[in-house]
Amino acid sequence: MEQFKNYINGKWVAAASGKTYQNLNPADQRDVVGEFPLSDAADIDAAVKACKAVERSWVLTPAPKRGDILRKAGDIFTRRKEELSRIMTREMGKPTFETAGDVQEAIDTCYYAATEGRRLFGFNAPSEMENKMNMSFRMPIGVCGIITAWNFPIAVPSWKIIPALVCGNTVVFKPSDDSPHSANIFAEILEEAGLPAGVFNVVHGAGAAGAALVEHSDVRLIGFTGSTETGKKIAAKCGEMNKKCSLEMGGKNALALMEDGDQALALEGVLWGAFGTTGQRCTATSRLIVHKDIYDEFTNKLITRASKLRLGPGLDPDTEVGPVINERQLAKIEKYIEIGREEGAKLALGGGRDDGPKLGMGCFVKPTIFLDVTPNMRIFREEIFGPVLSVTKAESFDHAIELINDCAYGLSSSMFTSDVNRAFRAIRDIEAGITYINAPTIGAEAHMPFGGVKGTGNGHREGGWTAFEIFTEWKSVYVDFSSKLQRAQIDNY
Questions:
Q1: Which of 144, 167, 282, 363 is catalytic?
Q2: 254, 321, 348, 439: which could join 287 in a potential S-S bond, CB 3.0 to 4.6 Å?
Q3: Sheet of strand 11-13: strand arrangement
C-alpha cells in the first residue's frame, strides 16, 4: 500500500501522532488508493508556523513575480493533466473526461491569476484638502486556511489557493479526506514551479484537522467549500475570532423548460446537469421544472434517454456516470429515494443501488427520476448530492420563476426559452448567484464570479476578479505635503 504524507515547510512529513487512514476507490472499494496522515492540531500548528516564518519574504516578492510562479504551475498542470485526471478518478470516481476538465479549470485559473499579479489595482481619489493626495492599495491578509470538498479535488482548491498566493498570502490547505491524493500532486506542482518552502502547505485529516485550522489564532482567513451545515459552524467560529471567511456551500438548483424552449437542447442539458459528476456538484440540476403543455412529452423523452446512460467505473472510457463517493453518501441517497416514495412522488426511473456483479463492489446509484414532485416534498427542498432528479410541473412562466425561487439555496439556475423577453425577466427575477439561459445549471468559467445567495454562501464570490477581493485587505493612504496641519471635515468647511 502506498504511503502518503503531509507537505509542511517544503518537506513530506507524517502526522505528529503517527495516525493514518485509508482512502478507497469508490468504484471498487477493494482498491486502496493509499494510506494518508490523520492529522490533528499539532500538524496544523506546524504548517501555520511554516507560513509565518516565510510570510514577510513572500509579501516582499513583487506580485508580478508571484504571478510568474503561478504561470509556471499552469504549464506543469498542463503537462501532468492526463496523469492527474486518472489519479482524481481513482480517488473520487467521476469519469476521466470530467476530471480532465477539473484539471483544466486549475490551468485556466493559474494563467488568469498570473496576469492579475500585474493588475492588483488600487484606487486614487482627489483630496478635499489642498496639497494632499489620497490613495488606496490592496494588501495581503496573512495565513489563509483553505478547506475544500472532495468532488472537485483540483479545480475548487485552485480557485482559492492560486489567487491567495498571487495576492501575497501564505496557505495551509486541508483537503477532503475523501480525495487527498490530488492535494499532494498540487503541492508537487507548486514546488516544481518554484514556490518557496513554507508558502504552501498540505495537512491531511478529518474534522479535527479542519477545526484546528479554523480555530488557529494565526490563521487570518478561512476559505471553505462544503455543506451549509459545516459552513455555518465555520462562520460562527470566524465571527467569534474576528477573522475573515469565504463560504461556498450547498445548492438545490433548478432548470426550467418552457413550452417554447428547444426540447432537444434541454434534454441534453438536463442529462448533463442532473447526472454529470453523478449529481455530486453544488451546481447540479437537482430540480427540473417543465411547463404543463409539454410536461408529458418531455418527461417521456427524458426517461427514455436517461435509462440508456452507462453506469460504471470512471476509468472505463465508455462510462457516462460514475460512482458516488462512499458508502455513507450512498446510504444518504438511498434514504432520500425512500423519502420520495413515502411522500408520494412517482418513481419513474432508477431507485437505488446498482449491486450487480460488475458494480457490486463499488458505490453505484442508478440514475433516478421522480415525477410529479411538489414544493412541499423534501426531495424538492433538500440537497441530496447524488444522481436524483425531481421533476415538477409549472402552470406558467411566472409559476416556473416562483418554483425556482421557492428554495433555501440560491447558487445556480437555468431557463430554457426562445423568448428573449422571458429570458431577461428570468435573469432579473431568479434569486441565484448564477443564471444560465438555454444551458444547464453547471459549467462555470474560471474568469467569472462564482457563488450564490441565501443558504449557498456569505456574499463572497470565487473565480475571476472577485476572488482577489476575498484575499486582500484595503489600505487607504493620505499624503499631506502642505507643511501644515489640515483637519479634514473641520478646516475644510
A1: 282
A2: 254
A3: 11-13, 6-8, 200-202, 170-174, 143-147, 219-225, 244-248
Residue 101 has φ and ψ, to the nearest 5°, of: -65, -35
Cβ pair 206, 40 in contact under 8 A: no
Q: Which three cell numbers stand for residue 463?
A: 473565480
> What gap in Å lies between CA 375 and CA 227, rounded to an integer?
22
DSSP H or E run through 427 = helix 420-429
What number of H helices and E strands is found in the chain? 15, 21
Q: Which residue has the cell 502506498?
A: 2
Tell me the one-letter amino acid at 149: A
Closest CA to 456 of 224, 242, 264, 261: 224
Topology, domain 253-437: Aldehyde Dehydrogenase; Chain A, domain 2 (3.40.309)
Q: Give residue for cell 421533476.
A: 391
The pair phi, psi for residue 258, each rounded to 5°, is: -90, 165
| Rounded Cα distance, 36 and 488, in Å | 58
The whole model's pTM is what? 0.96
Three cell numbers at 138? 490592496
Task: Decide the pairing of beta strands 472-480 and 132-140.
Answer: antiparallel
Q: What is the pLDDT of residues 267-317, one digit of tens each?
A: 999 999 999 999 999 999 999 999 999 999 999 999 999 999 999 999 999
Mark residue 147 as left, alpha or beta (left: phi above 0; alpha: psi -120 to 50; beta: remaining): beta
Check if 167 is active-site.
Answer: no
Which residues lie below 8 Å from residue 215, measured CB to CB, with a gap of 6+? 237, 241
Average pLDDT, the chain: 97
Cell digits of residue 249? 456551500
Summarize pLDDT for 401-440 with one digit per residue, the tens: 999 999 999 999 999 999 999 999 999 999 999 999 999 9
Q: Does domain 6-249+457-477 have CATH number 3.40.605.10?
A: yes
Structural domain spans, the chain: 6-249+457-477, 253-437
